[in-house]
Amino acid sequence: MKIIDCRNMACPAPVVTTKRALEEAGGETVQVLVDPGAPRENVIRFAENRGFAVSEVEADNGFALTITSPGSAPVEPVRTVAGKGGKTVMLVASDRLGDGPEELGRLLMKNFIITLLDLAELPDRMLFVNTGVLLTTEGSEVLEALQSLGNRGVEVLSCGVCLDFFHRKEKLVAGSVTNMFTIAESLLGAGSVVRL
């Protein structure tokens, strides 16, 4: 049985680490050490939603979750439905996710973009507009993740007008500059649009 220690990890690291361990285990049982609260709940929900059985015991100020595959064959990574009829375009219109406190919103956006690296299906194109362009320029905490997404075939495009407005065009690091025509064409021609 493989044992992984996800204690003292910030969200979404416990789920991402568990996902990788389960894929590598090839159907073998995995034990995950997690902190109480959201880390425990998120890992249990993730595993159960993918058909795994989860048992738990309290251990060392946290929990030991034993995750077992229901069958002998490894569980395939979850993928979205194929054949959706066009490209998936993600419109990132802010450097924050949600409408709550700014600090929380920035943390959520950072975690969301980093989590994309562990998904089986990726957007075909990510369009950054308004304060979203701050994520693609010098000083952003997600530059490495965005560059990795670009290396995996995701087009990362930032609005030129927005970059000019924030005086960031010369500081663009991830992806390339685009214009409103391409943005509009991408959105209207997409099979699905995800707006953040």
TrEMBL record:
SUPFAM superfamilies: DsrEFH-like (SSF75169), SirA-like (SSF64307). Gene3D superfamilies: TusA-like domain. InterPro entries: DsrEFH-like, Se_metab_YedF, TusA-like, TusA-like_sf. Residues 2-68 form the UPF0033 domain. PANTHER family: SULFUR CARRIER PROTEIN YEDF-RELATED. Belongs to the sulfur carrier protein TusA family. This is Selenium metabolism protein YedF, putative. It comes from Geobacter metallireducens (strain ATCC 53774 / DSM 7210 / GS-15).
